[in-house]
Design a protein that fits this description.
Blueprint lengths: L8 H4 L30 H12 L6 E4 L1 E2 L2 E8 L6 E10 L7 E11 L6 E7 L7 E6 L4 E5 L15 H6 L5 E10 L32 E9 L8 E7 L5 E8 L2 E12 L9 E10 L4 E6 L5 E3 L10 H5 L4
Antiparallel strand pairs: 1-4, 1-16, 2-3, 3-4, 3-15, 4-5, 5-6, 6-7, 7-8, 9-10, 10-11, 11-12, 12-13, 13-14, 14-15
Length: 321
């Protein structure tokens, strides 16, 4: 879910405002104790809760590991080419209260072009402090520290960017609430032939209409930097759960990319924001490059007793063993 800024080595291996005005980055930090807004939320309130959902702050930790042959499958497909697959395990830990570390994110690629690659990302309470990126490079058999990648850099060579997956925070954009409406989009998926549906691809879901009819907030978010690769993006956010169902990216008035998400509910949770990842699908309309991630429910665990040493350099060093 690698990136240009991490170099060739990877290849070797509100202001509270009304709906008609903008909410800027002041007070935009997202606390792990963020409460659900009451009444009519502002655009900033909504996007803070979207971030809360996507980073699983409702849980002390959240894991998508492996169980028998069930594992997260990433599919990449370029125009007029066969789909490529990779598998990955990912572990997020939010159980830090030292006033310094906000969360840690560990990803380990188990098959495919990036097999053996491990990434450990540390996010800090201080939003102005860059995230720390450590990577185990299997070809070099060493850990390397990298500068925080650009938001537009591809996560694991997919159509998902580091901005989509880890980097983008509410403070990076100004947000405008365009209103509420009924969601009307089919949730996309990579189209596969019957012959292609084998191995890990056998269980990849097809496009579906599961989200159609849900009431959503429609949010317009514009980047605060001139270096942002899009002019603005439109997010469709479930009014009950704050899960973002679809994100559209626009440049020069044209839709250039969209990202669809399937969120799954977890039984027994009091917080409606305590969701699980089911699948992501993204398509770059400029190149027709598509990516998809499918996370079986069987491999999702949370609030488990995992020692903090899981999120350490020693874990990265043990990947090849």
């Amino acid at each position: 879910m690698l990136v240009k800024s991490l170099g060739k080595a990877f290849l070797v291996t509100s202001l509270l405002v009304s709906s008609s005005t903008f909410a800027f980055a002041d007070s935009s930090s997202v606390s792990k104790t963020l409460t659900i807004p009451t009444g009519t939320p502002t655009a900033l309130d909504i996007m803070k809760n979207v971030y809360y959902v996507n980073h699983f702050y409702a849980f002390k930790n959240y894991s998508i590991g492996k169980k028998n042959r069930d594992i997260t499958v990433i599919v990449k497909k370029s125009k007029d080419s066969e789909p490529l697959t990779e598998t990955v395990e990912r572990y997020l830990n939010n159980e830090y209260d030292d006033g310094t570390v906000q969360a840690k994110d560990l990803a380990i690629f188990q098959s495919g072009k990036n097999k053996g690659l491990g990434m450990l990302i540390t996010d800090y309470v201080d939003d102005d402090k860059s995230q720390l990126y450590l990577a185990w490079l299997p070809a070099l058999r060493k850990i390397r520290r990298f500068a925080e990648p650009a938001h537009e850099d591809a996560w694991g060579g997919t159509a998902f960017t580091f901005g989509d997956v880890t980097l983008r925070k509410p403070k990076h954009e100004k947000h405008e609430l365009l209103g509420r409406e009924k969601f009307s989009f089919e949730t996309g998926a990579i189209q596969l032939s019957a012959d292609e549906r084998k191995g890990y691809l056998a269980s990849i879901p097809e496009a579906n209409k599961n989200n159609i009819g849900k009431e959503v907030f429609k949010i317009k978010s514009s980047g605060n930097s001139k270096e942002v690769w899009y002019d603005y993006r439109i997010s469709y956010v479930d009014v009950k759960t704050f899960g973002d169902l679809r994100v559209e990216y626009y440049k020069d008035g044209k839709l250039i990319k969209f990202l669809d998400k399937n969120w799954g509910n977890i039984s027994g949770q009091k917080d409606p924001r305590a969701l699980r990842w089911a699948s992501w699908y993204a398509k770059d309309l400029r190149t027709d490059f598509e990516s998809m991630a499918f996370i079986p429910e069987t491999i999702t665990t949370f609030n488990t007793e995992i020692h903090a040493s899981k999120w350490s350099e020693s874990t990265l060093e043990s990947i090849s063993k």
